[in-house]
Design goal:
The chain is α/β, with parallel strands linked by helices and about 250 residues long. The chain contains 7 helices and 8 strands, in the order ααβββββααββααβα. About 20% of the residues lie in helices and about 15% in strands. Belongs to the class IV-like SAM-binding methyltransferase superfamily.
Length: about 250
């Protein structure tokens, strides 16, 4: 998610939690909302201090994603937060995973960290068997279970490319625009890729984002992407809402 700012500061996975007016606007506002919705309910109070942009977030519909587990549900993996409490009979860290009792993991971690815990097959929470902290991608890799999304904030579009969180950067770039090339989805052949980026512009499109970025100002937007596509030809309306602009191309690429 990117803004149209000249500065490249404050890029990263998590936003600061101050209440400045700047955080009411643009991508930073939307990013915080998306982060909040993706976080399991039992972790939100600890991970999200009170913030003006979250005043009405309770009116939004819940995602009810697979990692948003109820207290009575057992699953091979659960999201949790590390606590200051010390384990009584073992070395490790106490983690609140949203069950009736906290669990202990075998790693020593700082308090207040969001972690994914492999729960194992032993459902007895009274035993001293330590659980393991694993990568947040482990549930998807092991069981194919969708395990939420990551929100990464960039202050401008050039930072999306230069500060890519993936090793080696994106190996295929696709831009979407009403000014893009019209190709039937059945005739579209994508190369084998490791990390694919699909970019969506704001109301003025990706052209405006590129024009306002001093690092890309002299470049043609079509030269920045490997493919620059119009995935919704003959759209009828002058603009497409962001939530529609996301779903239409994803169906197109499917």
């Amino acid at each position: 998610m990117f803004d149209n700012k000249s500065s490249s500061r404050n890029n990263g996975a998590f936003l600061n939690q101050n209440n400045s007016n700047e955080n009411y606007r643009g991508a930073s506002f939307l990013a915080r909302i998306l982060q909040y919705l993706e976080t399991p309910q039992n972790l939100r109070k600890a991970l999200f201090p009170k913030h003006n942009t979250l005043r009405y977030v309770g009116m939004l519909p819940p995602l009810d994603a697979p990692h948003h587990l109820r207290k009575h549900e057992w699953a091979p993996y659960r999201e949790g937060i590390t606590l200051e409490e010390k384990p009584t009979s073992s070395v490790g860290t106490v983690v609140d995973v949203g069950l009736d009792k906290n669990v202990v993991v075998d790693q020593v971690l700082e308090p207040g960290i969001s972690v994914t815990v492999a729960m194992g097959t032993n459902q007895n929470l009274d035993c001293d068997l330590p659980r393991q902290v694993v990568s947040s991608s482990k549930p998807r890799e092991d069981t194919g279970t969708y395990w939420g999304y990551k929100v990464w904030y960039a202050s401008n579009i050039s930072s999306v490319f230069s500060d890519c969180p993936y090793k080696g950067g994106y190996d295929h770039l696709i831009g979407t625009s009403e000014h893009g090339l019209v190709v039937n989805s059945s005739q579209l052949n994508l190369p084998i890729f490791r990390d694919l980026l699909i970019a969506f512009g704001g109301l003025a499109g990706l052209e405006k984002s590129v024009d306002e970025d001093y690092k890309l100002k002299e470049k043609n937007v079509r030269d920045i992407f490997d493919l620059y596509l119009n995935t919704c030809p003959h759209q009828g309306s002058q603009t497409i809402r962001t939530e529609e602009a996301l779903l239409i191309p994803l169906q197109y690429f499917q």
